[in-house]
From TrEMBL:
<dbReference type="Pfam" id="PF01636">
    <property type="entry name" value="APH"/>
</dbReference>
<dbReference type="InterPro" id="IPR051678">
    <property type="entry name" value="AGP_Transferase"/>
</dbReference>
<protein>
    <recommendedName>
        <fullName>Aminoglycoside phosphotransferase domain-containing protein</fullName>
    </recommendedName>
</protein>
<feature type="domain" description="Aminoglycoside phosphotransferase">
    <location>
        <begin position="93"/>
        <end position="322"/>
    </location>
</feature>
<dbReference type="InterPro" id="IPR011009">
    <property type="entry name" value="Kinase-like_dom_sf"/>
</dbReference>
<dbReference type="InterPro" id="IPR002575">
    <property type="entry name" value="Aminoglycoside_PTrfase"/>
</dbReference>
């Protein structure tokens, strides 16, 4: 029998922690002693059920989600809700909760025109601190994942209807006027008065940044730091690759942003519309699991999981989301084989909005973006240069050499060195593509 993964090691401890939170923060019942002489709340009738959890899942979860079925009404504000929130500049673990709740607050306002609401309400939170897990108590949203819609069996009509609703969501996030208290690029938190302000980006562990250019400079520096710590990448020092990257940072990076007429554009970026794998064109890709819908009506009912969200340029959504419909900007990796050429052709079509026959060509409208007037790749000025920088950023830390779980499951040194060779080839291909 397959042994449970390291995610499962603290399974019972997490359940006990949730019980203590409910008892301490919401006064659900008196505490009682357990056979192990521990004191935890006795929550009669309360069910705590893991959501999308696999005991044998080999990769580390970035968070754990539980469905709570509570037989009594609880206050919408926890008893300990006056816990002082962390200030900007804290380590990622201490800003993770605040960033997600702040984004949920903004997204709720940005998408208030969509009824019923598709953004979960937040009933309570607890910022992380040393020795203490962070937590968010939020609304359970109705609906099921979009797997059936984006499967090969899904109809073209269904796909168009869902994509139209996705465009409406994206439009709302793009157009929302950010509060003046948010000054930078990156993550968010709250100040002592409850205002939402810029903070470090939890997924990066750095920021906030004062400009779009500085956000990419900072993230590239963080990526190089991770590469330096990796015994296989060695900071990309071998074969003088690091010199070329440093040269790009100093000379090339400013050029990528010099001609942007709207470099100050910022928007709420979800960055993870898609999540779990499904089969498409005989390969596994990402499925729209963070979007739920009602099969009977075809209506989207929820946009979930704001774990990777932040305040960035609108183009960034297209660098991180929309995998099922080919939205991500893969490519620029290699043009030495038919698959590489196909990826590059797809990338160019998305950037230009001009797709080859027999696919339908781009429809030009007075507003440019089409029916929903959404900013899309072909209408975002300078996205080609931003895509180049983002491609470089992505190739600096090859996931299969950085992720400790993947390395643990693939101990063969020969295979690891082959991945190292492929990673360097991809990084050089990107550098050559942008003239370095």
């Amino acid at each position: 029998m397959e042994a449970p993964s390291h995610n499962h090691a603290n399974y019972q401890a997490r359940l006990d922690y949730i019980q203590r939170l409910l008892g301490d923060n919401y006064r659900l019942s008196d505490k009682v002693s357990t056979p192990l002489h521990r004191t935890i709340p006795k929550l009669s009738g309360t069910k705590i059920t893991p959501v999308q959890y696999e005991a044998h899942f080999p990769f580390e979860y970035n968070n754990f989600v539980y469905r709570l079925s509570i037989p009594v009404d609880i206050p919408t504000t926890p008893r300990n809700a006056d816990v002082k929130l962390q200030q900007p500049g804290c380590v990622p673990q201490e800003t993770h909760v605040q960033n997600e709740v702040a984004i949920l607050t903004l997204a709720s306002a940005a998408l208030q025109h969509i009824e019923p609401s598709i953004v979960p309400r937040v009933f309570g939170l607890g910022p992380a601190s040393p020795g203490r897990l962070g937590w968010i108590l939020q609304e359970l949203m109705p609906g099921v994942p979009l797997d059936d819609v984006f499967s090969p069996a899904g109809s073209l009509k269904q796909k168009k209807e869902i994509l139209g609703q996705m465009a409406r969501i994206l439009k709302g996030l793009q157009d929302y006027q950010l509060p003046p208290s948010i000054q930078g690029w990156g993550g968010l938190t709250f100040d002592d008065g409850g205002a939402i302000i810029s903070a470090s980006m939890p997924t990066v562990g750095a920021g906030p940044w004062s400009s779009l250019q500085e956000s990419y400079r900072g993230r590239i520096k963080v990526a190089l730091g991770k590469a330096e710590e990796n015994p296989y990448l060695q900071g990309w020092l071998p074969n003088a690759v690091r010199e070329r990257v440093e040269d790009f940072i100093e000379r090339g990076l400013p050029k990528q942003f010099a001609d942007l007429s709207s470099s100050q554009d910022r928007a709420i970026i979800h960055a993870d519309f898609t999540e779990f794998p499904l089969h498409h064109h005989k390969e596994e890709i990402q499925s729209s699991d963070n979007l739920l819908y009602e099969p009977e009506t075809g209506r989207l009912t929820a946009l979930l999981d704001y774990d990777f969200s932040g305040i960035l340029r609108p183009a960034y959504e297209f660098f991180r989301s929309f995998a099922p419909d080919g939205g991500r900007f893969t490519g620029w990796i290699s043009d030495r084989d038919p698959e590489g050429n196909e990826l590059i052709a797809l990338r160019m079509a998305k950037l230009s909005g001009e797709f080859p026959s027999p696919l339908p060509t781009s429809v030009v409208t007075p507003n440019g973006p089409g029916k929903h007037n959404v900013k899309r790749p072909s209408t975002i000025q300078g996205i080609d240069k931003l895509a180049n920088v983002d491609a470089l950023l992505g190739t600096l830390t090859p996931w299969r050499l950085i992720n400790k779980d993947f390395l643990r499951m693939n101990p063969d040194e020969g295979h690891r060195m082959e991945l190292r060779r492929m990673g360097e080839e991809q990084l050089i291909a990107v550098l050559e593509r942008i003239g370095f």
